[in-house]
Amino acid sequence: MKILFVFLLLIFASGNAFPEEIKKKSEEVNTVNPDDELFYNVSIGVSAFECMLGFEIQKGNHSVGLGLCRQVSYRYYTNPYGDSLLYGLYAGYRSGYLQSETKEEIDGVIYEDKKSMYAGVGVGYRWQWLSGWNVTTSLAIHYMDDEYSNPGQPKKKETSVIPFPGIMVGYKF
């Protein structure tokens, strides 16, 4: 928790360290038509929209994101160039062999393989600083369809719907 606090403090300090550069950027924003430009955002944290590490391409109010966990997302920002409310949806897929310490036991059977397909919708808020740094919080309704399997055993399917809160720290350029 201390590391996250120090990291957020450094982000805040870097945004206020060069006020003359911030003023210059704010004057440039007023002279350029930002609707014609693409913006990119790289973020890290925990979020239903981007998993743990994400990359987002934004043009105007719309953005498309790719997450580390093989997922894609779409978001709509009410104010794309500053602090903004956001709405979005996402979908993804994960599969793999479960390690011995993460094997799951369901109904007395220990499963070795797990495939997950998931999707959801959510809302959030992004605080955007002129330095490029941003913090995004979100809350999503997360639907997950898991399939467990073993060689020679019947497959087991489970579905769940859970709330998924998130917080990400990013840099927009």
Give the secondary structure arrangement, pairings included.
Blueprint: H1 2-16, H2 19-31, E1 39-47, E2 51-59, E3 62-67, E4 71-77, E5 84-97, E6 104-106, E7 109-111, E8 113-128, E9 133-149, E10 156-172
Antiparallel strand pairs: 1-2, 1-10, 2-3, 3-4, 4-5, 5-8, 6-7, 8-9, 9-10
Note down, in words, how this protein is organized.
This protein has an eight-stranded antiparallel barrel with strand order 1-2-3-4-5-8-9-10. It has a two-stranded antiparallel sheet with strand order 6-7. Helices cover 16% and strands 58% of the residues. It is of the alpha+beta class and 173 residues long. The two termini are 27 Å apart.
Key words describing this protein structure:
173 residues; 2 helices
Using the alpha-carbon principal axes, give the shape. Answer: elongated
Largest sheet: 8 strands, antiparallel, barrel
Distance between the termini: 27 Å
Number of strands: 10
Broad structural category: alpha+beta
- The whole-number mean of residue pLDDT values reads 80
Level of helix content?
A: 10-25%
Helix and strand run:
HHEEEEEEEEEE
